[in-house]
Specification:
This protein has a single domain, classed as 3-Layer(aba) Sandwich (Leucine Aminopeptidase, subunit E, domain 1). It has 5 helices and 6 strands; from the N terminus they run E-E-H-H-E-E-H-E-H-E-H. Bound molecules: adenosine-5-diphosphoribose (APR).
Length: about 170
């Protein structure tokens, strides 16, 4: 059985087989989680991202897709970069946010990561409402985390408001 857990803190301080990055399509860094992962993980991560841009992702990583690199100095084997959708009040992009969690789990299973730490994808700079982002995250992980493939899926929330949103989403059953 896969444990789904919540932690409040900085995802770059977590120990896990894979740490998921809320990246942008360039894969060349940014603020928030992305900035912290590159800052604390060190240059090897960006070097690996540059190699991906030069090979498979010439036009950048499309929204909703995921790709693994080294975790550099982080206490993990892999960083799984995924690009969340920017919130839109006029267009329902929920399927793209679901895809981030689903594809990150697929990549994690491919590389044999049995503990995966996720941030609350898209709920920062990309302005996705926290409650809805939490609901989509929990629902998608519950649906796609194959019990035999994962020991723990951990949501690492940066502040109390996010932690509460995910607690409610988990309780919704
Ligand atoms: N650890 C855990 N969670 C964090 C951390 C951290 N170190 N830093 C920020 N967060 C939280 C935010 O509070 C938010 O709830 O992660 C969630 C996602 O926020 P962002 O990192 O802003 O990611 P996102 O909303 O997906 O926007 C992605 O922002 O940083 C840029 O390069 C990135 O362009 C991309 C965009």
């Amino acid at each position: 059985m896969t444990a789904i857990t919540l932690v409040q803190g900085d995802i770059t301080r977590q120990t896990a087989d894979a740490i998921v990055n809320a990246a942008n399509s360039s894969l060349l860094g940014g603020g928030g989680v992305d900035g912290a992962i590159h800052r604390n993980g060190g240059p090897q991560i960006l070097e690996a991202c540059r190699r991906l841009r030069a090979s498979h992702y010439g036009k950048g990583l499309p929204t909703g897709q995921a790709v693994a690199t080294t975790a550099g100095r982080l206490d993990a084997q892999y960083v799984i970069h995924t690009v969340g959708p920017v919130w839109s009040a006029t267009e329902d992009r929920s399927d793209l946010l679901e895809s981030c969690y689903r594809e990150s789990l697929r990549v994690a299973a491919e590389v044999g990561a049995r503990t995966v730490a996720f941030p609350a994808i898209s709920t920062g700079v990309y302005r996705w409402p926290l409650d809805d982002g939490a609901r989509i995250a929990v629902r998608t992980v519950r649906k796609h985390a194959v019990p035999s493939a994962f020991d723990e899926i951990r949501f690492v929330l940066f502040d109390a408001r996010a932690y509460e949103a995910f607690t409610s989403a988990l309780a919704e059953g």
